[in-house]
Amino acid sequence: MSITDPRWVRAISHPLRSRLLALLEEQPASPVILAERLGERLGTVAYHVRLLHELGLVDLVSTRQRRGATEHFYKARTHPRFSDEAWEGLGPVAKQRILTSSLARIYEWATMSAAAGGFDRADAHFTRSPLRLDEKGWTELAKATKKWLVEVERIQAKASNRLDGNPHEGFDAGLAILLFEAVPLSSAAAANNSQGPHRRRRQRTAPVGEVERS
Questions:
Q1: What is the reported pTM?
Q2: Which residue in 14, 83, 98, 201 has the fewest CB atoms around it within 10 Å?
Q3: CATH class, 2-117+125-130+182-205 region
């Protein structure tokens, strides 16, 4: 699902809505179940799930009776992606909100999976690749990442077809791709050291706002 309108991007860039989408991609759930998992108020979760449904990002897939009320179960249609134009149309504050939340989700996802042995396979992969590019190189690399995403979708579709007859053979896998203009780690370390130990201690304990891009 490609999102081309910046207003839509802003609509789904709330940290809780991002988290709800991630959970509903994995399996159907009701606002009651989601509220219990996230430790949030049911009314707040129900409001955000309803908004995601109105945006067409989640589908109502089933209902059941629970304590005299009807419980609604939702499932995400697919993970939304922003077009280049929609991303460019966002202001810097909205971009920072989206990025911070998304990076927090990726960090949580990867560290929990690592603790459970998610990187134990011989062909598991994790790489950090600092590069020095010109504009042409950046454009070529950006196009390459999009081709890789198309290939990922092709592999996923073929796996889904095979699993239709053998669902017990399936397992969850994670893939995160980041391409960004980088601040060199040496520059970041030098700036951090120049602030002195007292300033660094204050930075580590300062609260961090959560924000996002999916």
A1: 0.66
A2: 201
A3: mainly alpha
